[in-house]
Amino acid sequence: MKYQRPGYFNARIGNGLLMLLIRLGMSPAGAQMLAVRGRRSGETRTVPVNPVTVDGTQYLLAPRGNTEWVRNLRAAGEGELRVGGKRARFRAEEIGDAEKPPVIRAYLKRWIGQVRAFFPGVGGDSPDDALLSIAPEHPAFRLTPMA
User: Has this prediction a pTM greater than 0.85?
Assistant: First the structure.
């Protein structure tokens, strides 16, 4: 699984502006802030993410591949989604490639405008076999709310 680094603008300016809006309680198109314990530092790390819901279950999908947040979430097994002062803790379970097509499809239907570059040749209406072919490049986690 490779990692597609964000460009300078996204890394330094775009994500910073998005995180500020989310902290202020404005969630552009449903974006949220993921807070997860760093696997090496133990410190809380935050990054904007685009959750997607399929059949009543919330998922996180990594359009850029094996990112730092993916590695941290694997190690921690839990995290928190934030918007403004609202916080929702969850347990995270990484799902296998065979389970990903409906998640990828829903994600692309919801977020294609932001992530098209990371999903060449597929879209929200692509057949399962096309989505299965790209599934190994996009880690995905099922989120279970914690009380």
Answer: yes
